[in-house]
Write the structure tokens for this entry.
Amino acid sequence: MNRTDNHILKCRCGSQRKRMPAELLRSGIVLLIVALVITACHVKEKRYNEQVLPAEIMTSEQAEEFAVEAPPLTEGIFPCSECHSELEPNPTRRELDWHEEVTSIFDHDKENRWCLDCHDLINRDSLRLASGKLLGFDESYKLCGQCHGEKLRDWRVGVHGKRIGQWNGQKHYLLCVHCHNPHAPKFEPMTPEPPPLPQKMSN
Amino acid sequence: MKLTQFPRSILPILSRGNRGYYAWLLFLLLIMVWGAGGYAKQLNHGLVTTNMRDSVSWAFYIGNFTFLVGIAAAAVMLVIPAYIYNWKPIKEIVIFGELLAICAVVMSIGFIVVDIGNPLRFWHMLPGIGTMNFPSSMLSWDFFVLLTYLCINLVVVIHLLHRIFIKKDYNKKLVLTLVFVSIPMAVAIHTVTAFLYNAIPARPFWNSALLAPRFLASAFCSGPAILLILFQLLRKFTRFEIKDEAIWTIAELMVYAMFIYLFFSVAELFKEFYSGTEHLLYWQYLLFGIGDNKELVPYSWASIIMGCIAFVLFLVPKTRKNFTTLNIGAVLIYASVYVEKGIALIIPGFTPDVLGQIYVYTPSMIEIRTAALIFSVGFLVFTFLVKIAIAIIFEDYRVEEPMPEQQQTLEKA
Amino acid sequence: MKEDKSRRSFLKNMALAAGSAIALSGCDMKALDHFLQKNFRTLSKAEVDEIITSLQLEYKNKYGKDFTVSAKPATDGILFGYALDLSRCIGCRKCVYACVEENNQSRGPQIHWIQVLQMEKEKGIDFADSDVHYNPEKVPEEGHFYLPVQCQQCRNPQCTTVCPVKATWQEPDGIVVVDYNWCIGCRYCMAACPYGARHFNWAEPSVPEDEMNTNVHYLGNRPRMKGVVEKCTFCIQRVREGRYPACVEVCPVGARKFGNLLDPESEIRYILENKRVLVLKQELNTQPKFYYFFGV
């Protein structure tokens, strides 16, 4: 009698235990469905990432060497020879009262340098390298580069100075003198644009 | 009676009540209307009506959300001691704990809904229909565990109440399984909510491994505080029987939780203040203010002082066993955690902001009104649920319903 | 197929449910279309075209201008990188406003994708003591340097990881974008971004009609709506066409550099290989593609 009772009890226990995995299985299936739905979403997005354009479209435009804008000469001053052809060339370093507009602001290693370190004595419409080689005003960067070699190197690769145009195509460079006054190269301080408005509480 | 008829048959309970009950409903209704007016403005003009800005982009709403998740978690975790100590009304403790949890979860989801810029797009978060960012987004996890937790608790409570109502035994296996699932889920919802903040290296104030443990400890202080008072009320006004010893044991467990919470906080503070890295800034803002910006200082110290007083009241056996001081302590610890989660957790995480700028935030009237809306809805739901539960459990509420055959004849006629 | 069908019918049910809400606010079928629009990344080419046509029409009605809305995808073999010369920046904020105009940022409430921080040379990079509201007569101010911060286009972006709905992601060319029609406005990304690069439309954005830039990209500078997050996209509408970003073009001191990180001949690669370079908050392992360098 007792034995049978025991047997029945055991049986119940067993069947109860079996039911638990069934529930587990059910919740497992639910989880699986959720997982599948989530993976489906992922797959859709992956397809999106494959929509990139082939590379040649962007690189077809050949990168171009720098195109230099005309140097910013003060109006009515060029060609210099227009006045200077009538004047006797004088190589002695001295104070010039004629070029007030330059002498008054001149601040470019003032102690050691003056006009003829960059301008040619004879050919007034040219600049002159230390080697004696003459240079047009549109190539002035080479003159600057005599002293500022590192800057010139950076400028050539587009790191110093400003470029506009295409980041992978035609680029538009500016000469040193577009940004720096050759006679006073230090940047003038400027008025800043207005600061952001303070974030305000609504009441 | 079928389960589908259950809601209809218990509905009349809600209209039965004394003057106090109706006054309470009216009060909630008035708050609700006042709050809804605020939220309508927010819906109309956008979140600009709150005081949140780019620098402090989460604030009061998310703080409330966090607090309520804690309440929801702790309410169910109380089942563990009830089970271990074999308190007699364990079924009732489970029911009222889970009712509180349900309301808290509903309110916390409510706070998320009012916080997002496009509540109508909520469906984007659903898996399958939307594109839920699972498993990498902690917010997706949180949403997922909160919903699951809500469903589990709803099933348990509805099943229990329905069974008691029709005077039949409840499905012990189902209830036990679900309750045992809901306990780790309770831990999970608060842990995941902590991970929501913890997982963000950009905000050093939260980026501490202690955040989740501190969350749990603080939840175990505030959640049972509500139940402690609720049980006393139930004991007074209904047939609910709970011994003084059980209530004192809850209080004793809360002391442990408070101690752990205090210890974790001290550990956190020691690390921050002793190492004195740039991360100290946020604690400084919270506790002492930076420069003239001391707006949070009264809140943080109020929370600390209330917490400490509550700790002492609960720790000393004499005050713990005196129901006046016990209840004062319960209110204080509740308020302390509320201020800590609502104000002192979120806002210092954003002040100073990631670029070091200080925007001083305090909740706007619209935010307070919207929060009032959610709380009043939550309280209303809780009132209704508790009323139904009391009627079914303690007042033997039943409806005179026609027998199935009678129903058929009625239908034919 | 079956799943698609049930999905559609579910969407229809959702539509009906939402319909009442929308009808209350007096909106039309267009609002319903917007409401039902799927995540950009799950749309087919045809669907994208359809959406763009209707957007152009919508903008025409709303702003009285012809818009070109592009959805040009990324190009293979390109990974965009940015470099900013800290030794050059003078804090003039020209970039801030060029960006605002190019990208149709809201003027009120004000949204700036670029924040220029003034810092003390004595302290180095120190956010806690930085000032974004500096406003002297002239810049640069003695003893200070300037650190403009915008989206750092992280290789390992936190903002996309935390988004609960995948409304923001990193494109194959490295630009982190937002689908404004999918963003729910939870602002988790703003909490997660260590650079304050994400901005929220707290109210309906406002841009003067005559200042509206009509050359827009779907994932970039098209007009936004209330309640969504937006951010710098390296001017996706410009750079995908080969142009420089607006901030690079406007910078009066040439402090801003931009290019393809995968092209060994690019300016950006030269900087990485030859200059002293730093990234902000390196310890967070976000791995920005926005580098700060010292040109001198």
